[in-house]
Amino acid sequence: MGEVHRFHLTVTASGRLVMRGEETARRKFTSWVGEYGSMPGARITLTDEQQGSVWTTWPGEG
C-alpha cells in the first residue's frame, strides 16, 4: 500500500495548477515562494491532509 503523506503543497497561477508536492512540503514552502512567487497570479498553499486544514498560503490573506 502507498505511503500517506500528511502535508500537501500546491502552486497555482491565475487559477491553474502549476506544481504539486507532498513528501517535503513543509521544507519546500519557502523555496517554492522564491521559485514560483513571481509568476502572474501565483498562489502557494500548504495543506495538512490529516487535519484537512490549510497551514499557510502565499501571498497571505489581505
Report on this structure.
By secondary structure, the chain is an alpha+beta fold. The protein has one domain (7-58). Helix content is 19%, strand content 42%. The protein has one helix and four strands. The protein has one helix spanning 25-36, and strands at 7-13, 16-21, 42-48, 53-58. Strand 3 (42-48) and strand 4 (53-58) form a beta hairpin. The longest helix is centred in the middle third of the chain and has 12 residues, at 25-36. The N and C termini lie far apart (41 Å).
Write the layout of secondary structure elements.
Layout: E1 7-13, E2 16-21, H1 25-36, E3 42-48, E4 53-58
Antiparallel strand pairs: 1-2, 1-3, 3-4
Structural class: alpha+beta
Largest pleated sheet: 4 strands, antiparallel
The percent range for strand residues is: 35-45%
Tell me, what's the shape? globular
Give the overall pLDDT as a whole number. 76
The Rg value, from CA coordinates, equals: 12 Å
Total number of strands: 4
Element-level helix/strand string: EEHEE
Output the strand order for the largest sheet. Answer: 2-1-3-4
Secondary structure: helix percent: 10-25%
Count of individual helical segments: 1
Poorly predicted runs are none
What is the number of independent domains?
1
- The N- to C-terminal Cα distance equals 41 Å
